[in-house]
Specification:
single chain; 9 strands; 6-stranded antiparallel beta sheet
C-alpha cells in the first residue's frame, strides 16, 4: 500500500475540483498531493495532523493546505456525529504560470506564501463558509468567480500558521507509508498504553533509531506527539461529556496518573482541565 503521494481523483481538464464528502469518516491516511486544498468542516469533529502540527477540528473550521504538505483528518469515533467536509482543490499554475502574478491578485501573494505550512482561518468565517457551501451548485463560470472571491475573503481574514519550517518537505512512497502507519497506530491506540518498542516495531527500527527518525521528520519527539493527541481528545471530552469527571477523562485519554494529566494539560493549554471546561 503506497499512501504517499495521493492523487486527487478529479476528471481530466478540470482546473478546480470540488469535493463534498459526507459519511462516517474522512480519508484517514496520511497523504499529500500537488493540489492546494481549501476545506470547510460542516459536520463532525476529530483530530488533524498538518505537517508537524497536531490539533482538533470541529464544525465550521476552515483550513488551507499547501501543495505536498502531509496531512490527515481523523474523525473521533467516540462521538456519533456524521462527518462532512467541503473541499476545493486547485493548482496555482492551473490558469497559467503568471495568472496569480497579475497586479489584480497582488493581495493573494501573502496567502500563497503562508499556505505552504498550512493555515487555519480565524476570522471572516461566516462569509467564507457561505461561499464554500454553495460553490458546487453553481455553473462552471460562476464557480470560478466564486473561487476567486473565496481566495479574496481568505486572504483578508486572520489566519493561524500551523506547521513549522523544518517540516516543509516531500515524503517518498516508502517513507510515506511508514509515517502513515505510525500515525494511524497512534491515533487508534492513544487511549491505551503505547510504548516506544511498539511503534519502533511498526517502523521496523530500533527504539533509538526510531526516536531520531521521528524527531527529524516531525520536529517533535514521539512522546510529545502522543501527548498532543491525548490532550486533544481530553479537550473534546471536557466540552461534550459533562457527565464525565476529570479523572475519568484522564484515563479515557490515555493517562494513568491524574497529576501527570493535569500538569501536561496546563503546559499545553495554559489552563487546568477544570478551567478549560468552564471556559468552553
Amino acid at each position: 500500500m503506497k499512501v504517499l503521494p495521493f492523487k486527487i481523483p478529479k476528471p481530466e481538464n478540470v482546473t478546480l475540483y470540488i469535493q463534498h464528502y459526507k459519511g462516517d469518516s474522512f480519508y484517514e491516511k496520511l497523504h499529500q498531493h500537488k493540489e492546494i486544498q481549501i476545506s470547510l468542516i460542516t459536520e463532525g469533529e476529530g483530530t488533524y495532523i498538518i505537517g508537524d502540527c497536531v490539533g482538533e477540528f470541529k464544525k465550521d473550521d476552515i483550513f488551507v493546505i499547501g501543495e505536498n504538505l502531509p496531512h490527515i483528518f481523523k474523525k473521533d469515533k467516540a462521538f456519533d456525529d456524521e462527518t462532512e467536509m467541503v473541499s476545493l482543490f486547485f493548482k496555482k499554475n492551473s490558469y497559467g504560470e503568471e495568472f496569480f502574478n497579475l497586479p489584480e491578485f497582488e493581495h493573494f501573494q501573502d496567502l500563497f506564501n503562508k499556505i505552504g505550512l498550512g493555515v487555519q482561518v480565524i476570522s471572516n468565517k461566516k462569509h467564507i463558509s457561505e461561499a464554500l457551501s454553495k460553490i458546487k451548485k453553481l455553473p462552471k463560470y460562476y464557480q470560478f468567480i466564486s473561487f476567486l472571491e473565496t481566495l479574496h475573503l481568505i486572504s483578508e481574514a486572520k489566519k493561524r500558521t500551523l506547521s513549522s519550517l523544518i517540516n516543509l518537505k516531500k515524503y517518498g512512497g516508502n517513507e510515506g507509508k511508514r509515517m502513515s502507519d505510525i500515525f494511524q497506530y497512534t491515533m487508534n491506540n492513544y487511549h491505551k498504553e503505547v510504548t516506544l518498542h511498539q511503534v519502533s516495531d511498526i517502523a521496523n527500527m530500533t527504539p533509538n533509531a526510531f526516536c531520531r527518525y521521528f524527531k527529524q521528520r516531525t520536529n517533535k519527539t514521539f512522546v510529545n506527539f502522543l501527548i498532543d493527541i491525548r490532550i486533544g481528545n481530553a479537550c473534546k471530552l471536557l466540552t461534550k461529556n459533562n457527565d464525565l469527571n476529570i479523572t475519568e477523562i484522564s484515563y479515557k485519554s490515555g493517562f494513568n496518573n491524574l497529576a501527570n494529566f493535569n500538569r501536561k494539560f496546563k503546559a499545553i493549554k495554559g489552563v487546568t482541565p477544570s478551567e478549560y471546561r468552564k471556559k468552553h
